[in-house]
Structure formats: structure tokens, C-alpha cells
């Protein structure tokens, strides 16, 4: 029987915390930074916890 493979693109973007929550990093922090305010860029630097609706989908992709 075949094995279920990890979705590698998702594994590079998401990580699972010790309590089982999915941690994500904000997008829109790569280019066009001159038009964004300092407050917006500062908030994009930090990580965030994925919402409950998408957590089950992402955990199935990265299998953790």
C-alpha cells in the first residue's frame, strides 16, 4: 500500500506548535515596502496562529 506524502510547499510555509496549533507567517513583507507604514511592516514581521476553519486542512497536508 502506498504512503501518504507530505505536501512540501505547505510544509515550508506552516509549522505545528506543541499544542497542535498551526503557526503561519504573514505575507506581503517581501517587496513594495516603501508604500507600507512602519506599523504595518512591524505587524507583518510576527507570526500568527491559523484559524480553526483551516487548521484541519493544513494539518492533513503536512501530517503532524
Short description:
The protein has 64 residues and is of the alpha+beta class. The chain has three helices and three strands; from the N terminus they run αββαβα.
* Gyration radius, rounded: 15 Å
Strand order of the largest sheet: 1-2-3
- State the distance separating the first and last CA atoms: 20 Å
- Described by the principal axes of the CA atoms, the overall outline is elongated
**What does the oligomeric state look like here?**
single chain
Poorly predicted spans: none
CATH class: Few Secondary Structures
* Main beta-sheet annotation: 3 strands, antiparallel
Which CATH architecture? Irregular
Based on secondary structure, the structural category is alpha+beta
Q: Quote the CATH topology.
A: Factor Xa Inhibitor
- Compute the number of helices: 3
In percent, how helical is the residue content?
25-40%
Mean pLDDT: 94
How many beta-strand elements? 3
Summarize the helix and strand pattern as letters. Answer: HEEHEH
Q: What is the number of domains?
A: 1
Beta-strand residue fraction = 5-15%
Structure write-up:
It contains three helices and three strands, in the order αββαβα. It has a single domain, classed as Factor Xa Inhibitor (Irregular), CATH 4.10.410. The two termini are 20 Å apart. It has a three-stranded antiparallel beta sheet. It is α+β, with helices and mostly antiparallel strands and 64 residues long.
Amino acid at each position: 500500500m502506498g504512503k501518504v506524502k507530505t505536501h512540501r510547499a505547505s510544509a515550508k510555509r506552516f509549522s505545528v506548535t506543541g499544542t497542535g496549533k498551526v503557526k503561519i507567517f504573514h505575507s506581503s513583507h517581501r517587496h513594495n515596502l516603501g508604500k507600507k507604514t512602519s506599523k504595518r511592516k512591524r505587524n507583518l514581521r510576527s507570526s500568527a496562529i491559523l484559524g480553526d476553519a483551516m487548521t484541519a486542512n493544513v494539518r492533513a497536508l503536512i501530517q503532524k
